[in-house]
Specification:
The chain has 311 residues and is α/β, with parallel strands linked by helices. It is built from twelve helices and nine strands. Helix 1 runs parallel beside helix 2, helix 6 crosses helix 7 and helix 8 runs antiparallel to helix 9.
Length: 311
């Protein structure tokens, strides 16, 4: 895993000399002090498994760091000088984690019961082919399913069934750390949006499965969020235009690019206006030479597997 040195910051809080934990819980946060407090209480109450808690403070200015240090001294707090984005924040968590497994939890998502982490560890230990385990997520207020990981399978039929998927929501997801050693980290230059798909393609190419695991439920608060902000729209367009040219043969990359342009245009115009879409497309084109330097075309078996998972 290159690009980030394992020790890049002086952590706040206690550093334990205890044996290697079974699972590292990594929470990337930015200016959500009160919500983070609830999340940390949820994680601290997890039993049946040895764990470490790592909080990546992405340049918060609302007292987040002080709250974590004073109220949760057992957590390792890594403070970033500015908001580097969720993708790079997670990478910093990965290289600083000591656990055999990693669990990423959003700063507004609560684990529904106190044995969630132990079930995650048991499932991953029970099947070495699984590189990523994706949890069941519901809106904390309405109870409705959210962050559904499959575009083809209806949640009404599959919500309580385990099945293989491709793209995954990054905020309530467990990893086998050994798998990340083979695939590499999240694409830090994405900032946010589609970084999970980028990593998922590499996971599949490395031979690992990505599994939706409904036995673990998380409650997502989604407070104060706009349904589709300009920032989300911008990075969603730009990053999804980059992915085909990182991994797919040229003919398929051309087709995928056309599909991305068509699909994102209508959504972006409806929510954010044409200018946001045009700016994202322009940025994708300007920085494409950098992306092409990272190009690593996946094999035919991987492409077939991706098509199967998208059905």
């Amino acid at each position: 895993m290159t690009g980030i040195r394992p020790v890049i910051l002086v952590p706040s809080g206690n550093i334990s000399n205890s044996p290697k934990p079974e699972i590292s819980v990594v929470i990337v946060t930015y200016n959500r002090c009160d919500s983070l407090r609830e999340v940390l209480v949820s994680v601290a109450g997890q039993g049946g498994v040895s764990k470490e808690i790592i909080v990546i403070d992405n340049g918060s200015t609302d007292g987040t760091a002080q709250m974590v240090s004073s109220e949760f001294p057992e957590a390792r707090l890594l403070r970033l000088p500015e908001n580097l984005g969720p993708a790079l924040g997670r990478n910093i968590g990965i290289v600083n984690a000591n656990g055999e497994f990693l669990f990423f939890l959003d700063d507004d998502a609560l684990l529904a019961d106190d044995s969630a982490l132990s079930r995650i560890v048991s499932r991953l230990r029970g099947d070495d082919s699984i590189g990523v385990l994706v949890c069941h997520v519901r809106n904390a207020e309405t109870g409705q399913i959210c962050n559904w990981p499959s575009p083809r399978k209806a949640p009404s039929e599959y919500a309580n069934k385990e099945f293989d998927i491709l793209a995954f929501p990054e905020g309530v997801t467990a990893f086998r750390k050994e798998a990340l050693a083979h695939t590499g980290l999240y694409p830090g230059n994405f900032f946010r949006q589609a970084e999970g798909l980028d990593l998922a393609i590499r996971m599949v190419d490395a031979g690992y499965r990505i599994v939706y695991y409904p036995q673990v439920l998380a409650l997502h608060k989604e407070f104060g969020r706009k349904a589709y902000s300009r920032q989300i729209a911008y990075f969603n367009v730009r990053n999804n235009l980059w992915i085909p040219w990182k991994y797919f043969p040229c003919p398929l990359a051309v087709v995928k690019t056309g599909l991305v342009l068509v699909r994102t245009l209508a959504v972006s115009v409806r929510h954010c206006g044409l200018f946001t879409w045009l700016a994202a497309v322009l940025d994708a084109g300007i920085k494409m030479p950098q992306i092409l330097r990272e190009r690593r075309v996946v094999g035919e078996l991987t492409i077939r597997r991706i098509k199967e998972l998208n059905r």
